[in-house]
Each structure stands twice: as structure tokens, then as C-alpha cells.
């Protein structure tokens, strides 16, 4: 079961105007306290959904500043459902980096409420066609795309009516399982697509799942030829993907989770394998 990569399962054509608007909206958002506005948005949303998490952890927006001795500073913000965004501008202060991350997260949060962001039959057909075209144009890929596209359609059909941010949060789990090799192992055990989707759709991406994946990557590092290098190469790739997604003002939980899992794996691997 092979799923399209992040750039293949989104809706790039429909999202492009939003990312262009980020820069055009700077003048308007500069007069708004975007950090407070983002928190208030999610508190109101939580209260409208029955009060769960209103003013509490269920509506909590989490910021993570990247340690740095000098600018440009970088900050990430994770929304209650798990979607993640980062500062996309050249930020001279840590406070500005936080505002930059909050700005793109607020725009996505508000835009996500629009009816056009809900998964419909029309959206499914368009997204699947784009995924198929992406696979067809990828000459470097040696994988048969049919299984991945079928799984992608199945996931979309199973989440009809949900918003794209909600769907992205769910897809992050399956992207990580694919990247980690877990889906391949399930296929070899002859688990059906429906069984896999049903199981992981009900399971949150938590510390236990991250640690399990990290241990598997640490094991790969130990099994590699003398000198290792598996983690170093994969981590460098994840860092590049994360930076590119952040600077493009895109949702970036998948590359960030990959990086964090690999950093944990590096701590779990024997010291001699990290040299």
C-alpha cells in the first residue's frame, strides 16, 4: 500500500491562491495581534463544538521556538488537531518568528472553515487526477502507482465531509507509516486496506508511536554497513523538506515529525554508529 507523498495528496492548485494571499495580507494582519487571534479562534471553535476543550488543553495552540544564538529565528506552531505551520519570513526576533508562524496558521485556520475546503466528490476526483498526474510525471519513481492511488482514493472517500486540515492530520499518520516501512510490513502480512485504515484512523499519533518508529530507524542504523550513515542521510533529507515547506508557508507536520523521529533515533542508536 503506497500513498502519494505530501506534494501529491494535497490540493496544490486550490491552495496556491491562499499562499499568494499570505503576502498580500501582510498589511492587514500587521494591525492584528495574530497570536491572540489564533488562540481565540480555536477557543471559539472548541466551544461551538460542544464546549470540549474551550479555554483548556483541547483548544491549546502550542508554539515551539528553535534554539538559535542569532537571527533569523524560527518558530513552529501546532494547532489543536495536530496541523503544524512555521515562520515563513526572515525574522530578526523570536517574537517576530512567533507572529509569522501564527499568521500563516491563522489564515489556514480561517480558510479551512470555508465550504470549499470540505472533501466532496468533486474534490476527490480532482485530487486523485492530480496525484495520478504527479506519479506519471515522476520518471525517477520505480513504484507502481496504482496501489497508492487506490489507497489515496479510499482514504478520501472514507473522510468525505471533513475539512482538508482534518484530512491532512489523518494522512500524516499514514505517510509516516509508509515512510517507516510499516505499511509494507502490513501488506506482507496480508492485512486489508480497510483493516489498516480502520485501525490507524482511530489511533492518534502519540509518543508511543514515535518511539516505536525511532527504535526501528535506530535498528536500521545498527544493521547498516560499518560507519552507518542511514540516519544522517535521512535526517538531512527531512531537514531540507521541512525548511522548504516552512519557507513556502505550507502545512509541515509530516517533515517535522520525520525529523523529530530521526533525532530520537539518533539518541537511541549506539554512539559509534552516529560518527
Q: Can you give me a brief rundown of this structure?
A:
The protein has 275 residues and is mainly α. It is built from 13 helices and 3 strands. The chain has helices at residues 6-9, 12-24, 26-29, 34-48, 94-111, 121-136, 145-158, 164-180, 182-188, 193-201, 207-223, 230-247, 253-268; strands at 62-65, 75-78, 84-86.
Q: Can you walk through the features of this model?
A:
- The protein has 275 residues and is mostly helical.
- It has helices at residues 6-9, 12-24, 26-29, 34-48, 94-111, 121-136, 145-158, 164-180, 182-188, 193-201, 207-223, 230-247, 253-268; strands at residues 62-65, 75-78, 84-86.
- Helix 4 packs parallel to helix 5 (94-111), helix 6 (121-136) packs antiparallel against helix 7 (145-158) and helix 11 packs across helix 13 (253-268).
Tell me how many strands there are.
3
What is Rg? 19 Å
Structural class: mainly alpha
- Helical proportion? 55-70%
Give unreliable regions as ranges.
Answer: 1-20
Our measurement of the CA-to-CA distance between the termini, rounded to an integer number of angstroms, reads: 34 Å
Taking the sheet with the most strands, its summary is: 3 strands, antiparallel
Query: Helical element count?
Result: 13
Q: Per the principal axes of the C-alpha atoms, what is the gross shape? A: globular
Mean pLDDT: 81
Which strand order do you get reading across the main beta sheet?
Answer: 1-2-3
String of helices and strands: HHHHEEEHHHHHHHHH
Beta content comes to under 5%
Amino acid at each position: 500500500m503506497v500513498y502519494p507523498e505530501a506534494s501529491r495528496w494535497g490540493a496544490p492548485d486550490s491552495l496556491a491562491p491562499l499562499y499568494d494571499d499570505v503576502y498580500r495580507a501582510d498589511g492587514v494582519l500587521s494591525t492584528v495581534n495574530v497570536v491572540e487571534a489564533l488562540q481565540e479562534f480555536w477557543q471559539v471553535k472548541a466551544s461551538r463544538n460542544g464546549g470540549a476543550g474551550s479555554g483548556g488543553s483541547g483548544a491549546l495552540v502550542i508554539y515551539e521556538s528553535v534554539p538559535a544564538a542569532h537571527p533569523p529565528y524560527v518558530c513552529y506552531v501546532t494547532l489543536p488537531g495536530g496541523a503544524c505551520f512555521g515562520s515563513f519570513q526572515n525574522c530578526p526576533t523570536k517574537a517576530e518568528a512567533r507572529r509569522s508562524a501564527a499568521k500563516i496558521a491563522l489564515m489556514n485556520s480561517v480558510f479551512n472553515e470555508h465550504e470549499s475546503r470540505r472533501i466532496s466528490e468533486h474534490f476527490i476526483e480532482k485530487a486523485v487526477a492530480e496525484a495520478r498526474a504527479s506519479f506519471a510525471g515522476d520518471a525517477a519513481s520505480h513504484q507502481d502507482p496504482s496501489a497508492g492511488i487506490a489507497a489515496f482514493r479510499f482514504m478520501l472517500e472514507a473522510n468525505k465531509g471533513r475539512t482538508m486540515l482534518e484530512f491532512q492530520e489523518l494522512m500524516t499518520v499514514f505517510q509516516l507509516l509508509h515512510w517507516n516501512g510499516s505499511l509494507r510490513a502490513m501488506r506482507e502480512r496480508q492485512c486489508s486496506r480497510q483493516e489498516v485504515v480502520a485501525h490507524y484512523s482511530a489511533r492518534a499519533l502519540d509518543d508511543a508511536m514515535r518511539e516505536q518508529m525511532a527504535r526501528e530507524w535506530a535498528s536500521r542504523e545498527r544493521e547498516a554497513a560499518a560507519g552507518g550513515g542511514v540516519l544522517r542521510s535521512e535526517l538531512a533529507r527531512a531537514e531540507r523538506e521541512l525548511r522548504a515547506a516552512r519557507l513556502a508557508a505550507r502545512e509541515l507536520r509530516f517533515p517535522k515529525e520525520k525529523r523529530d523521529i530521526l533525532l530520537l533515533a539518533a539518541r537511541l542508536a549506539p554512539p559509534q554508529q552516529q560518527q
